[in-house]
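ping. complex inputs:
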Amino acid sequence: LHHPPHPIQNTPLQSLDTLNSPAHVEFAQALGRRMELEIPGDLATKLATGHRIATSRLPDEKRLAGLVALFRKMEPRGNAHTTIASVLLNLDEALVK
Amino acid sequence: MNHHIQSSLQHRTRRHFLRDCATGLGSLYLASLGKTFGAATHATPDPSAPLLPSPPPFGPRVKRVIHLHMLGAPSTLDLFHYKQELARYNGKDCPKEFLEGQRFAFIQGTPKLLGPQFPFRQFGKSGAWMSDQLPHLTKHVDDLCFVHTMVTDQFNHGPAELMAHTGHPVLGHPSIGSWVTWGLGSENQNLPGFIVLMSGGQMPRSGKSVWGSGFLPSVYQGVQCRSAGDPVLNLRNPDGTDRATRRAALDALAALNQQTEAEFGDAETATRIAQYEMAFRMQLTAPEVMDISSETDAVRQAYGCTPGRESFANNCLLARRLVENGVRFVQLFDWGWDSHGDSEKHAINLGFKRKCGEIDQPVSALLTDLKQRGLLDDTLVIWSGEFGRTPMQENRDGLANKFVNWIGRDHNPNSFTLWMAGAGVKPGLQYGETDPLGYMVAKNPVHIRDLHATLLHLLGINATRFSFPYQGLNQKLIGVKPARVIHDLLA
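pong. complex structure:
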């Protein structure tokens, strides 16, 4: 008889943890710094590489456009790289794939 | 291959395909959402708002449930179920016919019968017998609906807990709270529909599976809140992230996750999107709703709360606040009720008495409070363990005197007492009869499955038609064995 693997956690508590817990905030800051300072290339390349680091694959055009749009929106507030990094690390693909 | 895709593919069989094709693509779509109350397919749950309330197929008597589970299984022979015969035969050898064919966790050979350990007397207009261990609760005796003939299939804690909460003794089935929130949604979209609170200390033996969603979408699993310190951790955004920034980030995240969902077809991705939105809303609502310090001193004293500590009393007050805010199903777990008599804390004459003292005032205050606020009119409170305890003194290792100072009883799945109070049930009722020793059911057994069928009935759902297709079977809370609504319990 086939039994599926034990289901993964999928609660709002987990979402709060991966968005706000001190460890995850530091993960996002570190990935943000890598995109900002270490990864060469233009903004799209930086964000695409960040996506690859988080999910092991490059984003398609539509996904990348979404990330770039969010970056532009966040830029005036500061912290744009960290915000993008947090989104990348909270992607369903990054959490379970 | 991704194991979730794999498993969701394995849940779909040729049988599903052929059945679904019979009535066209529309039904294929509806069936893919799975929810059915029977003949008519129910309004489909929107994956982006999975907890939207949806009315049950017929008029509900109960809108919300507070379930108080005493983990370890309290001896109801020493609380609610008075057996005079048992008192008379205290200390005598247990008759052979009671032992033949029975399985025990610890009893060996011929144990001695153990009479009620506390004085009993009758209370209220209903004249219900109760021992002196729950003096506050005796004042509510005419509001309680006692079922003395609960029966379960399982005699060990883990499987019996699963049986009590999922209707099946094995892992992988949804708990009642999951079934109910899947079927009915919840009245408050800013809080989870199914919340679990622990008194601290020991977890259920079966772990979080007793509030798991099994094969239902995981958005319906119980959400365990902490009962000491912050009820929910990480509610505050990190420094430099205001609510508008978070909103923009979540919008982008949702758009990206929706693309993932479209690409991979994993329904759990939709759940995840919904959970991020729930988390965002909970950041505003949870701190306020979960804060018992905003109650008056009088209320906190009535429950016997100690804010900031893990306690059953705090959880009882929280339970009232949660149902008041429209949470559909609130599950409380208290622990330490496994009175084998093998230690001080597990002795009926010692630790058990202390446990009774811990729950008596909070449970009574909860009933009073719910009644005063009119919530008892559409909220049902259930108190029980996972099975009962033997009318025999446990004789660990076959020795009558291994633990001379500690009195205890072994597990008994054949009968135990459960009580309910509130919407839809007959107050002041004593239902069912056991044999003279309180060991086996003599009349009117109520199996766990019958209780589940009755509970769903009260919520406006026909348990025999409420199903989810999984592994080629229309799975139900009550399973495939007979289960009936106990109409005698209904008001």
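Chain B has 13 helices and 17 strands.
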